């Protein structure tokens, strides 16, 4: 994986930093969200990214811009 996949995606990997971790923690209060969904949402909010997913329900109320390519 490290020799083939990581170099292919190197420019598209966003590290989880303090800003993302803090935003993620705020998404858990008072709503206990799935950790992976909270990290995705926090990363998108902090970096101004769009979340493209069929599972839009889990991201409602997080502040992210959502696109469901199956409905668009």
TrEMBL record:
Gene3D superfamilies from the xrefs?
5'-nuclease (3.40.50.1010)
The highest taxon in the source lineage is Bacteria
Where's the PIN domain? 12-59
Q: Where are the transmembrane segments?
A: none
Which SUPFAM superfamilies does the record associate with it?
PIN domain-like
Query: Pfam families, per this entry?
Result: PIN (PF01850)
Instruction: Write down what this protein is called.
Output: Putative nucleic acid-binding protein
- Species annotation: Pseudorhizobium flavum
